[in-house]
Structures are given as C-alpha cells and as structure tokens.
UniProtKB/TrEMBL annotation:
It comes from Halomonas fontilapidosi. One of its GO terms (biological process) is glutamyl-tRNA aminoacylation. ATP binds at residue 230. Residues 6-110, 124-236 form the Glutamyl/glutaminyl-tRNA synthetase class Ib catalytic domain. The gene is gluQ. Zn(2+) binds at residues 99, 101, 112, 116. This is Glutamyl-Q tRNA(Asp) synthetase. A motif ('HIGH' region) lies at residues 10-20.
Length: 297
C-alpha cells in the first residue's frame, strides 16, 4: 500500500476552468501513479465568495472528466471545531494574538507591522487573530518538486491572519489543519499558490504538523497573457463528453505529457489510463503556458 495522500481543494467561487482542470488533473495523476489516495475537499470557508450551486457544478465537472476521488467529499463549512481547536493551541503559548487594526491604518506599510502583538491597539473593536512571525526568526525553506529550493525571510511574510474580523476562518489556517488531519503527504497545485506556502509552512511548524511535499505547477495564462481565474471569467469547463475529450487532451498537453494525437478523441477513461501510465514530472516545464497553445497543439 502506498502512503501517498493527495487532494484537490477547489474554492467554489465559480465553476472550474481550464487552469483548475490542469491542477486537478496533475494532482490526480500524481496520486494514481503513486498508487495513492486522492481526496476532494471543497474549500467553502468564505461563504460570501461561494455562490449557491457552484460546488455541485464542480463535482459534476470532475465527474465528467473522469477525475473520481476517494472517500467522502470534505466540506470546510463543516470543520469549524477543528479550526477553533487549532487556534486555541496557538493562543496558549502566545503564538496567536488578537488584532484590531484595519488595513487602512497600516496602508503605508507593505506588511502588517505587528502593532497588536503585545496588546490590542483598540480594545472593544472587532478583532482578527494573527500568527506571530517574529518568534524564532528562521528562513522558511522547502524543496519544491518542480521549482526547486524556495526560501522566504519571515520578516517579509508578516503575521498572517488565522481568523478574520468577520469571524470567518482564513484560508491559511483551514488548509493547514485539513491537510494535516487528512494525512496529506503531497500537495500539487497551481503556481499562483506558491507564495502562500511559506505561511502554511510556518503554521505547520507552529502546530507541530508534518510537512507535506509540494509540487507547484506552471501557470496557465489566457490568450491575453492574463492569469486564468474565476474573476476574469475564464470559460467554465464543459460537461458534455464530446467537448470534454479534446479538453482533457489539451490539459495533458499543457502538462507537457506529450499525449499521442490519436488519444484526443478517446474516451476519458482511456486517456486517463494512458496518462497515469506515462505521468512524469520531469517532463513539466516551469514556463507559463498560454491556454490557446495548450488547447491547439
Ligand atoms: N482553495 C484554493 C483555490 O481554489 C486551493 C487551495 C490549495 O490547493 O491549497 O485556489
């Protein structure tokens, strides 16, 4: 039995687009190639950003592309107690502190200067909770499987928010607690999340969690050179099989896996079988790919 545990963790702020397909596919292939488990976690920790029905659409889209996950879906909206327990563990040794400052107050600084570290500046005002980054100032270093050694200076990272003033949990805390509790050994995700990783490494360290391995993927950019995102309304993935097949092929091309041209019209199960057998990270190029190139080559 492999001890590989991977996951795909979309935020249901809209349907999946080509960039998210590439991330889901890479994490699926990496897990299946290793004979490991691949889980699905819906990161709906910020409800105002998650329109009704978006998560269901994501589940249907993954299904249409043959990306079948193991076990039940995890929903972050169910995980309040786990996040609260983690925050308590950080509060006890003084690693987390309440902060009343607003972004406007520190707008002349690049990162939050830590004014509330030794006592809330404006008692009585709503507070966020932040992680202290100034204790044990060591560089945050890890080896990315594609981008190589990454090193960040804690003084440049600032004190990351763990719980927001509106009482919603911050993504950084939720993702770290869930990855640890689900025993995730390998995080495979888009390059746009690489600069979140140092905060997650700091939190894993503060909570005494094991550190997963990381593979950040080359970014897929739109024809206009902009990052694809739900915000710039990148096209939603189709669910009809005739449209899904060539797009799955294009995603394999975007991942530099050089799938045979004849596979472009093959059923998804056949394409995925080929892709699992041939999955090779060494083929991935760290260069950004344009969506149009990927979809037409
Ligand atoms: N929920 C995040 C997103 O959709 C991804 C989190 C992760 O893979 O760590 O951008």
């Amino acid at each position: 039995m492999s001890d590989y545990h991977g996951r795909f963790a979309p935020t249901p702020s809209g349907p999946l687009h080509f960039g998210s397909l590439v991330a889901a596919l890479a994490s699926f292939l990496d897990a299946r190639r290793a004979g490991g488990v691949w889980r699905l976690r819906i990161e709906d920790v910020d409800p105002p950003r998650c329109p009704a029905g978006a998560a269901d659409t994501i589940l249907r889209q993954l299904d249409a592309f043959g990306l079948h996950w193991d076990g039940p879906v995890t929903w972050q909206h169910d995980r309040h107690e786990a996040y609260a327990a983690a925050l308590e563990r950080l509060k006890a040794p003084g690693l987390a502190y309440p902060c009343s400052c607003s972004r406007r107050q520190w707008r002349d600084h690049r990162i939050y200067p830590g004014w509330c570290r030794d006592g809330v500046c404006d008692p009585g005002k709503p507070v966020a909770w932040r992680l202290r980054s100034d204790l044990g100032l060591r560089p945050v270093v890890w080896q990315d499987r594609l981008f190589g050694e990454q090193s960040f200076d804690p003084a440049e990272l600032g004190d990351v928010v763990l719980r927001r003033k509106d009482n919603f949990w911050a993504y950084q805390l939720a993702v770290v607690v869930d990855d640890a509790e689900q025993g995730i050994s390998d995080v495979v995700r888009g390059f746009d999340l690489l600069d979140n990783t140092p905060w997650q490494r700091q939190l894993q360290h503060a909570l005494g969690y094991p550190e997963p391995r990381y593979l950040h993927l080359p970014l897929i950019i739109g024809e206009d050179g902009q990052k694809l995102s739900k915000q710039n309304l990148a096209t939603a993935l189709p669910e009809q099989d005739e449209a899904v097949r060539p797009l799955l092929h294009a995603a394999l091309v975007a991942l530099d896996q050089a799938p045979p041209r004849a596979l472009a019209t093959a059923p998804v199960a056949e394409q995925l079988r080929w892709a699992i057998d041939h999955w090779e990270i060494a083929r991935l190029s760290a260069e950004a790919h344009r969506e149009a190139d990927a979809a037409t080559s």
